[in-house]
From TrEMBL:
<protein>
    <recommendedName>
        <fullName>GH18 domain-containing protein</fullName>
    </recommendedName>
</protein>
<dbReference type="InterPro" id="IPR029070">
    <property type="entry name" value="Chitinase_insertion_sf"/>
</dbReference>
<dbReference type="Pfam" id="PF00704">
    <property type="entry name" value="Glyco_hydro_18"/>
</dbReference>
<dbReference type="InterPro" id="IPR001223">
    <property type="entry name" value="Glyco_hydro18_cat"/>
</dbReference>
<feature type="signal peptide">
    <location>
        <begin position="1"/>
        <end position="27"/>
    </location>
</feature>
<keyword id="KW-0326">Glycosidase</keyword>
<dbReference type="GO" id="GO:0005576">
    <property type="term" value="C:extracellular region"/>
</dbReference>
<dbReference type="GO" id="GO:0006032">
    <property type="term" value="P:chitin catabolic process"/>
</dbReference>
<dbReference type="InterPro" id="IPR050314">
    <property type="entry name" value="Glycosyl_Hydrlase_18"/>
</dbReference>
<dbReference type="GO" id="GO:0004568">
    <property type="term" value="F:chitinase activity"/>
</dbReference>
<keyword id="KW-0378">Hydrolase</keyword>
<dbReference type="InterPro" id="IPR011583">
    <property type="entry name" value="Chitinase_II/V-like_cat"/>
</dbReference>
<dbReference type="InterPro" id="IPR017853">
    <property type="entry name" value="GH"/>
</dbReference>
<keyword id="KW-0732">Signal</keyword>
<comment type="similarity">
    <text>Belongs to the glycosyl hydrolase 18 family. Chitinase class V subfamily.</text>
</comment>
<dbReference type="GO" id="GO:0008061">
    <property type="term" value="F:chitin binding"/>
</dbReference>
<feature type="domain" description="GH18">
    <location>
        <begin position="29"/>
        <end position="367"/>
    </location>
</feature>
Length: 367
């Protein structure tokens, strides 16, 4: 009897181990990146060893049926995405991202406003994720801009979580991950506040888009993705602190940064700091230019580069062309910040913008 009692039954050890496994997967940090077809590289060319999670962008909301669909142009590469990126990193997790910056925000608002259309959206999203081999779903509704839409977003997320848990229980598979790409702050400018309690209870994490603080809609140049306030009250740190203040646990916040910059034409070549007047965008129609094109631009034009450590942002200029962007210094500082704040991780939009993986490598090794 006594000697038997000294042995812990095997089944207990196994249940303990599987509990540990669940805990460690729940606590897994996010080194994330978005990819889309036509971005410049194929999914199999992503150096997935540098990531824990890769987001495949974008599935669409069909406004007439309220179902989530993958366009025929994307169908083949999305179905192959998980297998492709797992070739070099079998443990990388993939999420199917729905919506995006150029999707129809009114369609999301209409879908979220009725219980029956929310159910259709939710059911179709789960079926689509499973049939295409994804580990999770990411909602990128840009943006719910009234309090009513925010309330409906909360209902959608709560029902989504319930459905994902029920599907996992009935299929015996691990529950799909649920994330959402959101404004950098819980206070959307329209103004409307995100339903933080429902988000914290329903989502594995949020991807806070802490970039696009300046662009062709602005009245002056300024840092695209400052970590600290350049003087206009907008920064990644302000957003992160506001999310935490509003009740989002730090451990569910993933900080986003850009693998692209925005280029402007200065009104005066000699006035090339922040808050300088510009006459229009440069180098592309909306001024967006990916990091590897920026590094080429700098070397081809011997552009002057400036790292502003106060706000944590980089810019370069040559003549009247001025570009704000993130480089290895800003990204390592942001990743160290994210880790120090106890955030869940970081993500980049978008992986094809990288230059021989230097930004992704810097981010990964800085965590
Ligand atoms: C991918 O990243 C790893 C880790 O930094 C590096 O060793 C490897 O050379 C990279 N592969 C490619 C193809 O760049
Ligand atoms: C969604 O799936 C659930 C569970 O399978 C089912 O009960 C419900 O009728 C479905 N709803 C719609 C709108 O398809
Ligand atoms: C960095 O930006 C801040 C905010 O605009 C500004 O006050 C400061 O002078 C800048 N520092 C440098 C070294 O340019
Ligand atoms: C900014 O760029 C976009 C994309 O090219 C364009 O549709 C929009 O009209 C531009 N806005 C301004 C204010 O120039």
């Amino acid at each position: 009897m006594a000697s038997k009692d000294n042995h812990i039954p095997l089944f207990l050890i196994f249940s303990f181990l599987s509990l540990l496994q669940i805990n460690s997967s729940m606590a897994q940090n996010v080194k994330g990146g978005y990819w889309f077809l036509g971005s410049g590289i194929t999914a199999s060319n992503i150096n997935s060893t540098l990531f824990t999670h890769l987001f495949c962008a974008f599935a669409d909301l069909d406004a007439s049926t309220n179902e989530v669909v993958i366009s025929s142009a994307n169908a083949q590469s999305f179905a192959a995405f998980t297998g492709d990126v797992q070739q070099t990193n079998p443990s990388v997790k993939t999420l199917l991202s729905i919506g995006g910056g150029s999707s129809n925000a009114n369609a999301f608002a209409a879908m979220a406003s009725q219980s029956s259309s929310r159910q259709t959206f939710i059911n179709s999203s789960i079926a689509l994720a499973r049939s295409n081999g994804f580990y999770g779903l990411d909602l990128d509704w840009e943006y719910p801009d009234t309090d009513e839409k925010m309330t409906n977003l909360g209902l959608l997320l709560e029902e989504w979580r319930t459905a994902v848990a029920a599907e996992a229980a009935s299929s015996g598979k691990a529950a799909l991950l649920l994330s959402a790409a959101v404004y950098y702050s819980p206070h959307y400018w329209s103004p409307a506040d995100y339903p933080v309690a429902a988000m914290a209870a329903s989502l594995d994490w949020i991807n806070a888009m802490a970039y696009d603080f300046f662009g062709n809609w602005s009245s002056t140049t300024g840092p695209l993705a400052a970590l600290y306030d350049p003087g206009n009250g907008i920064s990644g740190d302000i957003g992160v602190r506001a999310w935490i203040q509003a009740g989002m646990p730090a451990g569910q916040i993933v900080l986003g940064f850009p693998f692209y910059g925005r280029a402007f034409t200065l009104a005066n070549a000699n006035n090339h700091g922040y808050f300088a007047p510009f006459t229009g965008t440069a180098l592309s129609s909306d001024g967006a230019i990916v990091y590897n094109q920026i590094t080429s631009y700098i070397s081809q034009n011997s552009a002057t580069t400036v790292y502003n450590s106060t706000v944590v942002s980089a810019y370069c200029y040559s003549g009247t062309t001025w570009i704000s962007y993130d480089d290895t210094q800003t990204i390592s500082t942001k990743v160290v910040y994210a880790k120090g704040k106890g955030l869940k991780g970081y993500f980049a939009w978008h992986v094809a913008g990288d230059d021989n993986w230097v930004l992704s490598q810097t981010a990964s090794s800085s965590w």
